[in-house]
Amino acid sequence: xxxxxxxxxxxxxxxxxxxxxxxxxxxxxxxxxxxxxxxxxxxxxxxxxxxxxxxxxxxxxxxxxxxxxxxxxxxxxxxxxxxxxxxxxxxxxxxxxxxxxxxxxxxxxxxxxxxxxxxxxxxxxxxxxxxxxxxxxxxxxxxxxxxxxxxxxxxxxxxxxxxxxxxxxxxxxxxxxxxxxxxxxxxxxxxxxxxxxxxxxxxxxxxxxxxxxxxxxxxxxxxxxxxxxxxxxxxxxxxxxxxxxxxxxxxxxxxxxxxxxxxxxxxxxxxxxxxxxxxxxxxxxxxxxxxxxxxxxxxxxxxxxxxxxxxxxxxxxxxxxxxxxxxxxxxxxxxxxxxxxxxxxxxxxxxxxxxxxxxxxxxxxxxxxxxxxxxxxxxxxxxx
Length: 384
Description:
Elements: H1 2-28, E1 36-42, E2 44-59, E3 62-66, E4 72-77, E5 84-85, E6 90-94, H2 97-132, H3 138-170, E7 173-175, E8 180-182, E9 192-193, E10 201-205, E11 209-216, H4 220-228, E12 232-238, E13 245-257, E14 262-269, E15 281-298, E16 303-305, E17 308-315, E18 318-323, E19 325-330, E20 333-338, E21 345-349, E22 360-362, H5 369-376
Parallel strand pairs: 1-22
Antiparallel strand pairs: 1-21, 2-11, 2-15, 3-10, 4-6, 4-9, 5-8, 6-7, 8-10, 11-14, 12-13, 12-15, 13-14, 15-20, 16-17, 17-18, 17-21, 19-20
């Protein structure tokens, strides 16, 4: 019983102390909020290249299926699988015996027609004086003249047949229509091939290489302006490679894809060493001119919220949340088109702990945007 009384007294004493402490705290007021340590950087103005980063795929400039134009027995293959060939290089030989016979036959017909035509013309010439002396009738003379004209027409038809026979004979030797790389051969020697049907091989031209890609429609006006001034430039890096290939923009599609809101583009990249291959995925940068006096901040300072893109600026030791409109990217920097002016300090590190009006304290060794921009824009870099 005594222990219970003693415990009750202790609890009452603790309650009294707590009440007194609370009353004192109310009289002294709540402690001020602690400052958030941040690193800031100044927004700067620079001439920033418009660099659009995306990805795409490579395509051959030309792709031709080699199909015979005459039918016959495939006598000999003159190419190797995967061989690099030149325009006009012989690739296949088709048995030409039948076509040679047709040429000889057509030559004989044309020769006979020439002799017949010559005789017809001589007949007309010899009968011309007789007609003038009225020793032959006009009807007989017209008959001679008609036979001469008929012989001339027959010669034209047979000469056309001779030219066609010679053309088919020449087609028995199949040559490459372009410079490029062969695929495998699809049929072996000794097989019959059909004109316009049998595929013998395929040849692709890889120099220059075509690069196809898409970008957001928001860049359309900028890209078209840069293309019109000849300032659109490409840099292509194949996946898994560090080699950079420089090219030019050659094509902008005439419509925007309504499903993705993108515009299809194509470029050409020199590929003399044939290191690029069709169907490769590549990372790509499209340089579409320069924005003069662009207000730039590090991209890490920009955040995305329910109300849009924003960042924190500092003024008089407090954080201000600014809704911003972003533009072109250049290295680690991004253009701020609205919401921040050059010279203002924006928070680069520590912004995730901030709220509007929060007190801030500057950390030591704060980075500067000017230093980063200067490093990116030094001679020989993309800033050039």
